[in-house]
Amino acid sequence: MTRDERLQQIIAILRDGKMHRARDLSARLGVSERTIWRDMAEISAYGVPVEGERGVGYILRRAMGLPPMVLTTEELAALDHLLTLAEGNTDPRIAAGAASLATKIRLALPRAPDAT
Known about the structure:
globular; mainly alpha; 116 residues; 2 strands; 5 helices; single chain; Arc Repressor Mutant, subunit A
């Protein structure tokens, strides 16, 4: 499992609205507790509304997600263009939100195959 897949899996687990300890998540995902702590910090940095702390547990209070959708190449190009424009907005909240959203979308897109 890649790191990105693990982050998505953690978010999927947290969607149940229950408290999850790093110990339980690490056992379930086959990684160390320290890795879970780092992953939780990364998930939080992406703007996912996770609450909790080491030694207590983590919970997703307000699930914010879109239903799965398939975008065309043209739609992705338009979205990328709009996000690039928004990242240059003078309102720092809009610029930061656009940058965060662009990162989430890039992480969710399939990787281009390596040319070997």
